[in-house]
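Example record for the data management plan.
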Amino acid sequence: MMRLLLPCSFLLLTGFSLFVSGQQPTPTPKQDEAVRITTNLVQIDVLVVDKDGKQITDLKPEEFVLKQDGKVQKITRFGYYSTAATPDSVTKESVTSTLTVPRSSAPPVGRLITFIVDDGNCALSNVGMVAAKEALEKFVIQQMQPNDRVAIYQTRAGSSVLQQYTSNKDRLLQSVRSIRWRPPTGSCSSPDGSFFEQARSNQIGKTIEDEAGNRTTTLRNIENDQSRQSREAAEDFNRNNQAIGTIGVINYVVRGLEGVAGRKMVFLLSDGLALRGRNGISSTALQVMRDLTDKANRASVVFNTISVRGTYDSAALDVRDQIDITGEIDPAKPSGSAKVGADRERFTRDLEEGMYFLANETGGDFYRGSNFLDVPINKALSLERGYYLLGYEPDEDTFKGKEFNKIDVSVTRIGAKVASRSGFLPKPDVEATARLKTSDSELYQAIAAPLPKAGLELQLTAFFGNTPVDGSFIRSFVAISGNDINFTDEAGGLKKAVFDVVAVTLDEKNKVVDEFNKTHTIKVDPGTADAIKASGLIYFADVPVKQSGVYNLRFAIRDVPSKQIGSAGQSISIPDLKQGRLLLSGLSISELGPEGKYARPSLEKSENGFSLNSSRGGIVTRQFRSLSSAAFSYTVYNAGATGANITAQVNLYKDGKLISEGKPKAVSSQLTAPGRIDDFGFLRFDESVAAGEYTLELIVRDEVRKQAASQSIDFSVIN
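Corresponding structural encoding:
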């Protein structure tokens, strides 16, 4: 609501490998086979370009130098595979008789291109999201080729309907239109969509003039060291959690591409991925990033990362920055320009570190400083016209007692540059990829990987919840479009619908921590069936979570009569309530009925089940007509012994722009449990409210402890 051409690693390359020992070539592998990293074969893909950035396709095996951990390896597998969709795009045979490569007999099927827009980022900028949206619109309209299969993911949340690999430009543009800046949740460094938080003076001055006209100014700090350290720790924690959430979505994409043959390209468009906190110590995000790049390398996935911030000076000061209460720039003061500039430069480096790491480790490029993001997209795609496959037999120590095996590839031809992967973790492929518990299930596959075709239209709304008795859980609501529901006739004139439901929570390493699967049968009269077809259904579920952390919640639902499947997912941060920090969760908005009633999440845990989506203005679909009213509700945790010092502020955004900024007001609701407040408010959409997409942002503050928490929710106003 809110570059570099680098070295190499191993691969799960499917279907394009060769490879022989001695004089007899092995049979060409079938298209769905994969060459795995084993104790007797490591295989890598390599791009080689000349000084003008054009691919070199006529290199011989003896022109390559391949090293593992600094030791030169004998290349025993070699070939070049062309992926360019041109009449002369054939795979070339090696000139060395003992190294053979299969020819490509299948016609080109087009490029498989994946875009991930990081709109769940704590450092999310308004400028960046506008640039990402414009670039993807231009790509779809101008650059996309007829046979391309493209998917667009967003890290904030996602439905399978908008994440299909498709050649349908209208469907892709529908996904692009949902990209916009939204206020980030939690404690973030740039909560207003700017690149950096406004620099504020930490001092208030009080001037007293005596009878003789002498003036004395006394300065007082607004924020003491303890409060500052607490705030910065919360910001670092929140940024780290959101980085892990982003990596979780990327993991999901990589998992879906494992079974696709060949080298796959993924673009990450982001304001940045910070892998460190203010103290410079590597966070858990760095650990999960290493696991991610290892999976990507084994799945033949190449990441090109693009900073969406364009050209800017990180050390420049903004007109809104308060340098000093006297209006003077004093570098010696904590709030002076030198410190502000240095902090912003460091923050920029931190954001770029994760982007560079992801591209570097997987053999792609990191692009920054471009105001027109279609330019780096086109440049990266122009390089993907083919690649070399190099294979060698590792020694017996490769998979023993090492944290990482570094790979380096170079060529002897003057002026040539190599782009490849940087290395691999010392474990064979058979140990590398964790599977879901019942990975042969169609529903579980829908959770583990993107669906290959369009299915049910699902919308997911989920958030953290807690009760003193049951502990923490994820409360989730899934809306199913009525047009997708199929009824069969039953005795007595009734209509029957049957749904299979699977829900899984995945941790930061994409491993299953909890799951449930159920079959629900609904029998209704014809009139109710018509109402369901018109309005759809809502599936309600609570998923228990035993430990704090960042999780990806994924649902898959199958309409049994039609066998159509839909999936949806969302990243959820589960806090540790014992730390005592102010928390906000459960923000929902729904239509206000004639008697002043409105839907809100129940305060206690309930059984899973379906209910009629009685209104477009429900807590999932959130579509409101002009001249209607809505109510929003939320829960505050760790509000103190009495909750007397808690204030709430409501801001309203349209298409990512602030249109109404509220004033903080005291929360008058009483505690419903120790430290917990369940509160609500109202909105009125009069004739001046234009149709469009809106975001409601709620900020709660503890005015005594100087703590804040925020959450935001999207909704639309329709004519």
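Summary line stored alongside the record: The chain has a mean pLDDT of 78.
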